[in-house]
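Internal ticket #5521
Category: modeling
Description: The requester needs a full-assembly model to guide mutagenesis choices. All entity lines are attached below as received. Residue total reported by intake: 286.
Assigned to: D.W.
Attached entities:
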Amino acid sequence: MRPLDNHLCFALYAASRAMTAGYRGPLSELGLTYPQFIVMVVLWQTDGVTVGELGKQLQLDSGTLTPLLKRLEQANLVTRQRNADDERELIVTLTEDGHALRHKANDVSEQVFCRTGLEESAAMQLLGDLHDLTARLRTNNPV
Amino acid sequence: MRPLDNHLCFALYAASRAMTAGYRGPLSELGLTYPQFIVMVVLWQTDGVTVGELGKQLQLDSGTLTPLLKRLEQANLVTRQRNADDERELIVTLTEDGHALRHKANDVSEQVFCRTGLEESAAMQLLGDLHDLTARLRTNNPV
DNA sequence: GTCAATCATATTGCGCACAATTTAATTGTG
DNA sequence: CACAATTAAATTGTGCGCAATATGATTGAC
């Protein structure tokens, strides 16, 4: 058995948590958790999406998203309404407050990115490697 | 605001969850969750450590470790006993069953690594990059 | 030696993740 | 139209992560 430091899984797990921890302080000033933040990122990119579409992009299921979205609704950042054409679907839409948070959140992203000390090119390389890895793990993992 | 795909934080978050998902099936046959597995990796490496030492290596606090270790104890994989020289400390020690699990777990690691489709050299490169990133995030994150 | 400060772990509470199940709406087939 | 199959979200239950606090043991200053 390899030592802990040689486990790629742990390197990912540790890096992901360290990154989330980096976002925690700045995001708390916006009243957001990290998972709430990435939901907002999707909405800033494509407003008015269904829970299913959010889940597809974030790889999160309704068990995670439903309560999270209810909290965003409570915070008056999104509205949740059924699609009139298909009452099974729930459409999530940004409120005015939700839109307004975009610029502050962008500052947070830049701020945390600076803390990584990465060059833009190194970050892009790492980003690509991680996307490839994620894709391969998903295809090769029997569900 | 960058799209979701340009966020390094999300690439890490997605990759880490995909990796954990890759371990889920094989580990469930050993009766372990992923966090329980990494605790066991530390113990296979250094048996008889305190909760504090585990927490230092894994960057997890007692709020996470205490219940997790109680479950490992329930599963008869570890014992938990106070240090007689300092009753504040709790020493976690592998049981016979805990030791015995090591080989099966090693197979799981190899199996999941194969699914990444990575060359050994590429994996080492990525491992190093992730360690660096984690270190930088930790130093630059005011706690 | 006493007692305040420190330290290690445990507890509590909240918000994810995810599996499994449920509920309700829609679709497809006869 | 009827109704079984499918689909989208919601619900339930378990196990993390982590902040905040509590408990109990040890240390240090006097």
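Resolution: model delivered.
Comment from assignee: Chain B touches chain A through 57 residues (CB under 8 Å).
Ticket closed.
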